Amino acid sequence: MAVAAMIAEFDDVAGWTADAVEQLGDRYAIPAACRGSSNPSALAWLAEACELSAGSRLLDVGAGAGGPAAWAAERFGVRPVLLEPMQTACRAAARLFGLPVITADGARIPLRAGSVDVAWCLGVLCTVEDKAALLREIHRVLMPGASLGLLVVVARSPQTLPVPEGNHFPTQEELGALLTRTGFKLLEQTSWPGGAPLSWSRRVEQVRAAVAARHHAARAYALAVRQGERFGRLFATEQVSMQLIHVRRP
Ligand SMILES: C[S@@+](CC[C@H](N)C(=O)[O-])C[C@H]1O[C@@H](n2cnc3c(N)ncnc32)[C@H](O)[C@@H]1O
């Protein structure tokens, strides 16, 4: 992932987010560190679909700054393991939540086959060129019968607007074929529910404002903002949609 805009978005901003949370307080950590546009309703859908239960080992592939995994640990008592290739994001997750973090690419997960009870991969597939390699590797580490929860940005129509750099959005047909080819069974899918409550979105905004106040002049900040604006325009024109998906390793 050598694209400067993605490094800015996924690494620099993750570190700045952790700095801002440390200033503002712990209650900001989970909302601010959910950076795949997940929100409590989306996370609850995934958690219920995957039947998360206390003590189970949840591998979050492309965990970013760790918000979704920390949310799952707090609400469902799972034992998360985070996997994330970006070093500053890994440090941010460790600083904010003290969770175990593996710095690695999702296509080469340094865990034993069948050693994971359940996995999440949220907002990651569209940032990865070789999506099949990533999914095959998740399939390998999951126990037979285990669930994988996905949040995927799906292309509704050919994109006529600029896409965020480094992103490749699958169509629904491509995604379905990809999941089948990599050995998963699609169980359920729904559109992202949107609309986080104000208690959540206000904290996200406060952290964003703190990051902007401190870093607005940085090149990485401008690159990350441009990525966000491109996403915003694609969603506003319905060229892409966000999907929550529950699949199982048979
Ligand atoms: C949109 S962010 C989502 C982060 C997190 N899942 C969340 O929902 O807050 C996408 C994440 O995927 C990670 N990523 C990109 N390529 C990856 C790969 N090949 N393997 C694992 N993670 C990857 C990025 O570094 C980034 O942290």
Automatic annotation (TrEMBL):
Q: Does the keyword Methyltransferase apply?
A: yes
Sorted UniProt keywords: Methyltransferase, Transferase
Q: Name one GO biological process term.
A: methylation
Which parts of the sequence belong to the Methyltransferase type domain? 59-147
Single GO term (MF): S-adenosylmethionine-dependent methyltransferase activity
Pfam family of the protein (one): Methyltransf_11
Which residue spans traverse the membrane?
A: none
Question: Does Electron transport appear among the keywords?
Answer: no
Q: What is this protein called?
A: SAM-dependent methyltransferase
Origin species: Phytohabitans rumicis
